[in-house]
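Render this sequence as a predicted structure.
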Amino acid sequence: MSRPLPDADYEIRVRDSFARQPAMQLIGATLLRVEPGRVDVELAVRDDLTQQHGFVHGGIVGMIADSAGGYAAFTLMPAGASVLTVEYKINLLAAARGKALVASAEVVKAGRTLSLSRVDVYGIDGGRETLVATMQQTLMVMHDMADTRQ
């Protein structure tokens, strides 16, 4: 899907912003793909991210999905704007396990004020991928708001 790019430096902006997130650093999440309207976030599965059954905690799954969807929308926002999640709905479909989780996000609609992203989270184990969660998310374009701590 072809989309107009309001900021040719979107990838640098996204990668710099992601690097400033202490929460993503805490859990060890990394950016993989960054393309217009699409972002993938990867998380190596570790024991300290699991719940009592040994599956990655649903809150952690939500964290990487939220970041992937937000940054997918951010790629289509103008320079000088910032992004903020308004709401999301996540369905946990299978146990979140494997060697890694990958949250793959795509913008459904990029609006002037609100954008909508869809995110699928996969458990990766060897060559096998299992869909563990799907999310729909609404994001706000924060015009003229720097993407830094206030």
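Summary. The two ends are 35 Å apart (CA to CA). Strands lie at 29-35, 38-44, 82-92, 100-110, 114-125, 128-142.
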